[in-house]
Each structure stands twice: as C-alpha cells, then as structure tokens.
Write a structure and sequence with these properties.
- Helix content is 35%, strand content 25%.
- The chain has one domain: 3-Layer(aba) Sandwich (Rossmann fold), CATH 3.40.50.
- The two termini are 29 Å apart.
- With 189 residues, it is an alpha/beta fold.
- The protein is globular.
- Strand 9, helix 6 and strand 10 form a beta-alpha-beta unit.
- A six-stranded mixed β-sheet has the order 7-6-5-8-9-10, sandwiched between helices. The protein has a two-stranded antiparallel ribbon with strand order 1-4.
C-alpha cells in the first residue's frame, strides 16, 4: 500500500493541490487559506479512482471492518464510494455504495439517501477533504437518522485545521485519514 499511497500523493500534487504564499483560497467554512485541495480532479481521474478505491478498501479491511456499504454526503464522497464498490467487486468482497443527498428530492420517493442499503446496515462514511468536519458530521447524522449503523469514517485528506477530525470524533465514530496536509506542506516549527 505504501507505493500506492506515494503515487496518490503524486497525483494529488499534480492535479489537486494549489499553494499561494499569500492566503487567497476561500474555504467552505469561510476561512481563507494558503492552500487548497480540489480532490475531484484526483478522485474522478481513472488512475486516481482506482488507487483511491484500492487504498480505502484496504484501509477498511485493515481496521477490521466488513461494512454493507460505503458512502457520504454528495459530491465529495461519491467518487470514493463508487471506487471502493467497484474495487470490492473486483476482489470478490462486495461493498455497496450509497449517496447522501444535501436535500431530498421534491419528487419521487423523496429519499435523503440513495443506494442499495437498508435500515440496520453497517456503513463506513467517506469524504474527500475535512477542514471543520461539518459535511462529514452531517453525513453521519443523516445515516443514523435513517437507521444505518456507522462503524467508522475514512477521510481521504485531512487539512489538519479547525479541529475537523476532532469534531467528527465527538460523534463517537472512529476516524481514519489516508493523507493529511503534511504530505504536501512540511510541518512548521
């Protein structure tokens, strides 16, 4: 997995990471930062999707989980969930994918969650980037409100700001991060 992680870091550097010596990137939280990660350029590329699917699947197994499904709040979680589902089928250990809508549709069944899941299923919540943890916490809460059992959270990239990981952990879910900002910016003493 180390070689794949190194390749993932390279892809993120090439496609998703931007840095400015002067803070100029406005984040969802409203804060302005020196760096920005547009992870969709990684997770929606063919090679990135394969690597992310394999790494997240292996992390799920490494922490001893066998969930029924993996997913999170659209749209950051979507390509990760789809990649894990596809990879899991390739290795004949299927894990379904699901999507949590930001708002239920106004028509049809008005479901807040789409996918082949049902009440009582064990799930892993995924997200592409965490800063405050707000969208991940929203996904956890929606999953629980719909009687899913959230076993863990896996974050592709932790910005290590605004207590995002700690905020998520307050929900009682263990949090596992694949990468963090220090894979791209050295720790400042």
């Amino acid at each position: 997995m180390d070689n794949l992680k190194e390749r993932l870091i390279q892809i993120v550097r090439q496609r998703s990471f931007q840095y400015s010596p002067v803070p100029k990137f406005r984040l969802t939280s409203g804060a302005v930062s020196n760096f920005y990660f547009n992870m969709k350029k990684t997770t929606q590329s063919a090679e990135g999707m394969y690597i992310v699917g394999k790494i997240v699947f292996e992390k799920i197994r490494q922490i001893g989980l066998h969930p029924d499904a993996v997913g999170g709040l659209t749209m950051g979680a979507d390509p990760i969930a789809y990649a894990v589902a596809m990879y899991s089928q390739l290795v004949k250990e299927p894990i379904n994918a699901f999507v949590i809508r930001k708002e239920p549709k106004e028509h049809g069944l008005r479901l807040p969650i789409e996918g082949d899941i049902k009440a009582g299923d064990h799930v892993v919540i995924v997200d592409d980037v965490v800063t405050t943890g707000g969208s991940t916490i929203r996904a956890i809460n929606t999953a629980r409100e719909n009687d899913l059992i959230v076993d863990a959270v896996i974050i592709l990239l932790d910005r290590c700001e605004q207590n995002g990981r700690q905020n998520i952990e307050k929900t009682g879910c263990p949090v596992h991060c694949i990468l963090d900002v220090h894979d791209f910016i050295p720790v400042q003493n």
